[in-house]
Amino acid sequence: MQLPSLEVSEYWSHLWSYEKEALKLTRNNHDPLEDVDCPHEIESHVVALAISAIRGKSYWRFGGFMNQKLKVGFSGIRTFDSDAVSKQRLYLNRWQLFVFPKLTEKYTLSFEFPFWFEGVILDLMVYGGPHYDPLESDVGYLKGSTDYNRALIEQVQLNTEDLLNR
Q1: Which residues contact 139 (CB under 8 A, 6 or more apart)?
Q2: Using CA atoms, how far apart are residues 127 and 9, in angstroms rounded to an integer?
Q3: Residue 1 to residues 52, 92, 100, 129, 134: CA-CA distances in angstroms?
Q4: What's the pLDDT tens digit per position in 80-98?
Q5: Is the entire prediction scored with pTM above 0.90?
């Protein structure tokens, strides 16, 4: 199992961009931005995201929340119908790396923006290079341990039978 090579630019691909300005009601008032769902199903469990506020203040740091949403089999409709499995805080004007647990093969993301944002720009990148899954590593270790223990038990049984037959 190979560790991810996050520094290799060829392993990253741009998946989605989103830009939206809030509806101005008056000179100093606007409608809050609505939550938005990424229109793509994502297979990679490593993503990077950058978010910026249009006409944002230089001291603003908080950029809202990103939610991982999964398909669950008990709703009757094959949609991404779960609530946020993983709710991540977003920070403005920087790339953030997110590693989601591999609970399903595909998932989608939704985004919540602060009510004071007059507009937002989002860029989402997905990692497509080699992955390291610690759970698979643990399963391999446990399987090897089980095989080893089974061989030891068989050896003890053979030795015990040999001693009893003497």
Answers
A1: none
A2: 9
A3: 36, 34, 18, 12, 9
A4: 556 657 789 999 999 999 9
A5: no
